[in-house]
Amino acid sequence: MRVLVTGAAGFIGSAVCQELGARGHRVVGLDAMIPQAHPRGTAAPEGVRRVDLRDTEELGALLRDIDVVCHQAAMVGAGSSPADMPMYAAHNDLATARLLAAMASVGVDRLVLASSMVVYGEGRYRCPEHGDVDPVARTTADLRAGRFDLPCPDCGTPLDWALVDEGARLRPRTSYAASKLAQEQFANAWAGQAPGRVVALRYHNVYGPMMPRDTPYSGVAAIFRSALEGGEPPRVFEDGRQMRDFVHVSDVARANVLAVERVASRPADGGGFEGLNVCSGAPISIAEVAGLLCAGLSGPAPVVTGEFRSGDVRHVVASPARTADVLGFVAEVPPDRGLREFSTAPLRPAS
Ligand code: UD1
Fold first, then answer.
1. Which of 15-29, 42-56, 103-117, 320-334 is predicted least confidently?
2. pLDDT at 342 over 80
3. What are phi and psi of 299, to 5 degrees?
4. CA 164 to ligand 1 centroid distance, Å
5. Which residues fall within 8 angstroms of residue 231, CB to CB, at 6 or more apart?
6. How many whole angstroms separate alpha carbon 68 and alpha carbon 52?
7. 64-90 burial, b for 16+ CB within 10 Å, e for fewer?
8. What is the pTM of this model?
9. Number of domains in the chain
10. At a CB cut-off of 8 Å and minimum separation 6, what does 230 contact?
11. Which of 174, 215, 220 to mutate to test the pocket of ligand 1 (most atoms within 8 A of CB)?
């Protein structure tokens, strides 16, 4: 198939291009080469065309003869400042809207969208007494007092985490998360209008070789890695018991190829929007992540600081069941092995 990949020079996009090529697909790669992801002045890699989706007349021509669009381009990060809202809206929503309109105008009706577990907001919680409960977000006073666990709204008992499935309510908590949910919703509306078919892949915490070095937009694995390289211990926030699902970039790339093949093989009959978790299925605490990276590099032991970031969720870990069912995707890299290997893998230079 002929697949147009946006964000093709990025950490995940470049792995997706490679995997698509390895499976015999022909790739047309685009990237805006934004300075938040690439050092200023970096040329687009060979085979990738510099195109900013927000502002281009070329899209119609680039989409000619394309079977599937795999839309990885996005502005990522914590998204905790209102000042960043226009940037997220422009890169993630306006750009996606332009892409969808151009696709419809030339009759490209299959889309794989890079979404994120941030659309869920807080994960799923269970009270030993009351079962599944809808948690109330932590206040700054709770966090300052070291009350990191969410309490049961009925009895106050600290809640246990459970696996989030795709039917969970979508409650984005940051501007980044809001922009990712809006992107899903534009894609869902487009699937009905075009009509088209969409798989939105909700990535959990992606890590692996060529992850961007420590920047305000980096995930915690790269931040810990960068600290260790500088001889500093990783600083683990809260009490380190917050749970995430770390999924290797090679698995994410494979999930994308399966999704591309799925959207291509089903009718674009307008009923087709599917949101799917992309995760390892092996939840891990942030303290364990730090410990594995320290062990891999024989670096200084992690420090649990009790610091906190106000927008952070306590736990978010995913059920891999639906994606296994729909795409036949099962992660191959368990986080204990992958994170150990990541401790010495190359990183992308800082911007
Ligand atoms: C991350 C991404 C988010 C992405 C999502 C899924 C960032 C900033 N966040 O969210 O954009 O959509 O994964 O891929 O890129 N922590 C420390 N020490 C630090 C930094 C963070 O202990 O120095 C803790 C945080 O408090 C949090 C956990 O590590 O509890 C994870 O943080 P982070 O990597 O930012 O990931 P998410 O919030 O899960």
1. 42-56
2. yes
3. -95, 180
4. 17
5. 299, 300
6. 19
7. eebbbbbbbbbbbbbbeeeebeebbbb
8. 0.96
9. 1
10. none
11. 220
Identify which of 84, 113, 205 to mutate to test ligand 1's pocket (most ligand atoms within 8 A of the CB): 205
Q: Which of 54, 63, 57, 60 is nearest to 34 (CA)?
A: 54
Atom of ligand 1 nearest to the CA of 236: 22
pLDDT for residue 24 is more than 90: yes
Domain CATH number, residue 173: 3.40.50.720
Residue type for position 18: Q
Give the Cα-Cα-Cα angle 323, 106, 187 (nearest 5 degrees). Answer: 35
Q: Which amino acid is at 121?
A: G
| End-to-end Cα spacing for the chain | 34
> Percent of the chain, pLDDT > 70?
98
Q: Which of 283, 105, 257, 259 is nearest to 205 (CA)?
A: 283
Residue 141 lies in a domain: no
Which atom of ligand 1 is nearest to 308's Cα? 26
Position 187 in a domain: yes
* Residue 205 CA, closest ligand 1 atom number: 14
Nearest CA, atom 25, ligand 1: 237
Domain of residue 189: give its range.
2-123+164-343
Q: What is the mean pLDDT of residues 223-246?
A: 95
| Tens digit of each residue's pLDDT (9 = 90 or more) over 161-204 | 999 999 999 999 999 999 999 999 999 999 999 999 999 999 99
pLDDT value at 269 more than 90: no
Residue type, 341: E
* Residue 145 domain-assigned (yes or no): no
pLDDT at 57: 85
Concatenate the DSSP letters of all residues of 246-274 into one string.
EEEHHHHHHHHHHHHHHHHHS---S-EEE
